[in-house]
């Protein structure tokens, strides 16, 4: 028995004449957990000892061949036998082994197939080595066997991209020997017979000499360092592949060490947290239950947001009725949707046929009454409560009973919006992120009265749109924008007190963000923050130091960022350069406020910014706006460009530790005790030594 899983439950063998069949049956994805490794090793050795069979055929039950190592075992003490050892036994088997691939043979799963002596794939199958996406490298022979079978360049491409290779390509590259149709067991029997009658040739990969080209390896290494400077595992992948010119035993040792090096990094833990987190957000009771059918969607508002939402629905094959108040607005909306779809075609994300089908499913209309037959309406108009309430009042009168009424508001109170209808149970928030047809995050906001089936339908829609739906409760800004408002203030304080916008951006880009906060603001439009500051001016907390003066002055000049050609940066000649006039504005504001600029190190900038993010993220978990820390993490990975290899703000917080964070916050509080306050939840965690990961486990 291994970890409560019986070996006999996951590996079975049967013999028929000269043929031995081994079946792996470890749902859901036949991962090579401890029991599978023990079972496979014993099966190979028992069949060889018995000496009756002349060929072994290995296949998997269920929906797929194996998806590789059981990722849940990583980070725990390793259990023998290791997968590389088992696969060496497979390769050394005196009786030839043929593998039958169906579904997706990924990572250690594909490595099993590479260690067998012939590979037959069932039509539609895919193979791949996605370890790099988990901060790892193929550690069970993939870096040694794939270049031997398919050449250096192909191996580097597959290992560094982590992509799933269609079986036709795998056949062309000689990675699989043939592609057939049929059920895995039938194909396994047929393949075994072909080995016996000599129509399917077997070969030992370890006896093939790998093609080797130092120049290709050097150029690849330089490329990964340039493209992914923060990531540890891509360079290790190249290092391991570079050992494929050694005798295989030595090459495997280099691979093993490189794999263990990757295993030790926090990046591996962050990326695996991201893998499971993406699935965990919808693995909750609220997302399950019965749903309402959504076959036709209404989108109100043809601006950037509404058009992006409509594009996303159309790409998913959902007909959309787009509503605008005036003909020119409607025309602009249709033009934006067409542009979005054309962009998806040129990026290779959509076929021309699907683009044409999507356009055919779009019905523009100036009549709100035309929404009487849709199953879901998504309102995406200005962020003004009275406008939204007016629309929802009308929708209540127009829409059929049972239709779901959603608002794409980024911060307004869904419950108040729902009061303008007689059906608050049908109302929820569906907060998309711009550009809505590209960004994968969807905050699903539960109102006080939102029906359980309405909420579950929100999750079903997210899945259909291939988005990551995260449950959020009502508050100003929900999960993401509420946290952003808090750490955005920290960035503003850093500039007010001594850092330059460029230094803040550089420090955070070095930390792993694709863009620093000032570049992001320039991209989003500085007028958006300006409007929000004006809107909140009356309710601003007088005890809180105001930090908007610099941004206000930039906006007063009409500089709204990229769209006006200047903001914190100038955009005249392509690559952004610091706007020299902003430095003058900063000096003037500091002088007027009597601030003597301080020197901040890049490390200090990152620490303050990240601590501010963690503080508000902790509060969002504490007050239940987010269900668990992992929900906050996924909001940031999929909606805010947070570096995936750091797992999300609260996963990152665990790498610092609650006690160290409390100490940090108390240190900053000496400068500004109003802004820097320790959340109770963090103080409690510091006292009892618990972590955000513990809270995830509690659910
Ligand atoms: C590796 O192999 C290292 C080796 O080189 C060396 C070793 C020494 N382990 O995605 P789904 C779970 S590294 C454990 O929703 P789909 C998943 O969490 C590994 N669990 O289904 C989910 O659980 P739940 C390299 C796994 O049909 C359920 O299975 N391999 C694993 O949309 C269904 O998954 C990879 O990186 C796993 N390996 O997609 C492949 N995989 O139901 C990772 C999945 O509780 N897996 N689960 O939420 C995938 O890419 C997709 O799961 C796959 C199926 C395409 C297979």
UniProtKB/TrEMBL annotation:
Pathway linked to the protein: Lipid metabolism; fatty acid beta-oxidation
Listed Gene3D superfamilies: 1.10.1040.50, 2-enoyl-CoA Hydratase, Chain A, domain 1, NAD(P)-binding Rossmann-like Domain
UniProt name for this protein: 3-hydroxyacyl-CoA dehydrogenase
Molecular function (Gene Ontology), one example: isomerase activity
Keywords assigned: Fatty acid metabolism, Isomerase, Lipid degradation, Lipid metabolism, Lyase, Multifunctional enzyme, NAD, Oxidoreductase, Peroxisome
Matches recorded under PANTHER family: 3-HYDROXYACYL-COA DEHYROGENASE (PTHR23309)
Biological process, per Gene Ontology: fatty acid beta-oxidation
Keyword Ion transport tagged: no
Location(s) in or outside the cell: Peroxisome
Parts of the chain that traverse the membrane: none
UniProt cross-references to InterPro entries, sorted A to Z: 3-OHacyl-CoA_DH_NAD-bd, 3HC_DH_C, 6-PGluconate_DH-like_C_sf, ClpP/crotonase-like_dom_sf, Enoyl-CoA_hyd/isom_CS, Enoyl-CoA_hydra/iso, NAD(P)-bd_dom_sf
């Amino acid at each position: 028995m291994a970890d409560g899983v019986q070996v006999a439950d996951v590996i079975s063998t049967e013999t028929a004449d000269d043929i031995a069949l081994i079946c792996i049956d470890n749902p859901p994805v036949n991962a090579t957990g401890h029991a599978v490794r023990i079972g496979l090793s014993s099966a190979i050795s028992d069949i060889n000892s018995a000496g009756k069979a002349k060929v072994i055929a290995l296949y998997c039950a269920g929906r797929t061949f194996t998806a590789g190592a059981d990722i849940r075992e990583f980070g725990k003490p390793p259990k023998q036998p290791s997968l590389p050892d088992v696969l060496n036994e497979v390769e050394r088997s005196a009786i030839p082994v043929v593998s039958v691939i169906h579904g997706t043979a990924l990572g250690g799963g594909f490595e099993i197939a590479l260690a067998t002596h012939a590979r037959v794939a069932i039509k539609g199958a895919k193979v791949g080595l996605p370890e790099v996406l988990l901060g790892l490298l193929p550690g069970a022979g993939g870096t040694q066997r794939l270049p031997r079978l398919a050449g250096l360049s192909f191996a580097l491409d597959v290992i560094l991209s982590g992509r799933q290779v269609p079986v036709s390509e795998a056949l062309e590259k000689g990675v699989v020997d043939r592609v057939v149709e049929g059920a895995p067991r039938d194909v396994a029997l047929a393949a075994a017979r072909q080995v016996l009658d000599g129509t399917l040739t077997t070969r030992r990969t370890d006896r093939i000499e790998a093609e080797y080209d130092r120049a290709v390896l050097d150029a690849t290494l330089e490329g990964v360092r340039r493209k992914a400077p923060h990531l540890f595992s891509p360079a290790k992948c190249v290092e391991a592949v570079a050992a494929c010119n050694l005798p295989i035993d030595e090459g495997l040792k280099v691979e093993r060490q490189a794999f263990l090096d990757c295993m030790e990094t926090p990046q591996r833990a962050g990326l695996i947290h991201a893998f499971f987190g993406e699935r965990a957000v919808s693995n909750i009771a609220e997302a399950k239950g019965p749903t309402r059918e959504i076959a036709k969607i209404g989108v109100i508002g043809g601006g950037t947001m509404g058009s992006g939402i409509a594009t996303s629905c159309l790409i998913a094959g959902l007909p959309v009725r787009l509503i605008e108040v005036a003909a020119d607005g409607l025309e602009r909306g249709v033009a934006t949707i067409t542009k979005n779809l054309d962009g998806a075609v040129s990026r290779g994300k959509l076929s021309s046929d699907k683009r044409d089908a999507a356009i055919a499913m779009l019905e523009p209309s100036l009549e709100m009454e035309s929404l009487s037959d849709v199953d879901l309406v998504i309102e995406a108009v200005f962020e003004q409560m009275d406008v939204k309430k007016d629309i929802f009042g009308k929708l209540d009168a127009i829409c059929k009973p049972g239709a779901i009424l959603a608002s794409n508001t980024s911060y307004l109170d869904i419950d108040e919006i729902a009061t303008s209808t007689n059906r608050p149970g049908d109302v929820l928030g569906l907060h998309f992120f711009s550009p809505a047809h590209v960004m994968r995050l969807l905050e699903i906001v539960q109102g006080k009265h939102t029906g359980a089936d309405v909420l579950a339908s929100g999750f079903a829609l997210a899945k259909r749109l291939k988005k990551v739906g995260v449950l959020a409760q009502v508050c100003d800004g929900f999960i993401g924008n509420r946290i952003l408002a808090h750490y955005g203030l920290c960035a503003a304080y850093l500039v007010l007190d001594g850092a330059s916008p460029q230094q803040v951006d550089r420090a955070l880009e070095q930390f792993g963000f694709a863009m620093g906060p000032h570049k992001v603001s320039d991209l989003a439009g500085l007028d958006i923050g300006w409007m929000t500051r004006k809107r909140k001016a009356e309710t601003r907390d007088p005890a809180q130091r105001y930090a908007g003066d610099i941004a206000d002055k930039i906006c007063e000049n009409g500089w709204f960022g990229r769209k006006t050609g200047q903001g914190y940066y100038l955009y005249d000649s392509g690559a952004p350069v610091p706007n020299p006039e902003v430095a003058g504005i900063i000096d003037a504001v500091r002088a007027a406020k009597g601030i003597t600029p301080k020197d901040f190190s890049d490390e200090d900038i990152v620490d303050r910014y990240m601590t501010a993010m963690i503080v508000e993220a902790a509060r969002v978990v504490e007050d239940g706006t987010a269900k668990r820390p992992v929900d906050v993490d996924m909001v940031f990975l999929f909606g805010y460009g947070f570096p995936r290899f750091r797992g999300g703000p609260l996963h990152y917080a665990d790498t610092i530790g609650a006690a160290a964070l409390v100490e940090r916050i108390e240190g900053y509080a000496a400068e500004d005790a109003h802004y820097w306050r320790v959340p109770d939840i963090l103080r409690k965690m510091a006292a009892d030594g618990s972590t955000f990961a513990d809270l995830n486990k509690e659910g």
